[in-house]
């Protein structure tokens, strides 16, 4: 049987404007259990990724997680806990009829160094 890890998802919340007129951002945190963690894609520097985003890891979220991941940051357990990871894009779940396992959303993340 396959078991996932517990991770923390930080969701951005837009706040009031600062003295320069820019929106402030705070984050709410929630724990998501049973997330599978896999190495990132190796062909991530081709034309499909014109900004040169490097996929660090691929996460597979369980079906019971239904929130948006746009703009989120994830924190992972050891041995991946050396840095935060940023979610790439706005990953959408697959149709339940096409996913017979407990997971239905593939999420690519990049390292958030600096």
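^ structure tokens above, recovered residues below v
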């Amino acid at each position: 049987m396959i078991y996932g890890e517990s991770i923390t998802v930080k969701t951005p919340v837009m706040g009031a404007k600062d003295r320069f007129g820019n929106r402030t951002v705070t984050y709410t945190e929630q724990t998501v259990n049973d997330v599978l963690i896999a190495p990132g894609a190796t062909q991530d520097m081709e034309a499909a990724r014109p900004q040169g985003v490097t996929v660090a890891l691929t996460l597979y979220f369980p079906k019971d997680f239904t929130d948006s991941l746009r703009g989120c940051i994830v924190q992972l357990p050891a041995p991946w806990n050396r840095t935060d990871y940023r979610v790439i894009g706005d990953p959408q779940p697959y149709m339940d009829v096409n996913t017979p396992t407990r997971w239905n959303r593939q999420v690519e993340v990049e390292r958030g160094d600096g």
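The chain has no helices and six strands.
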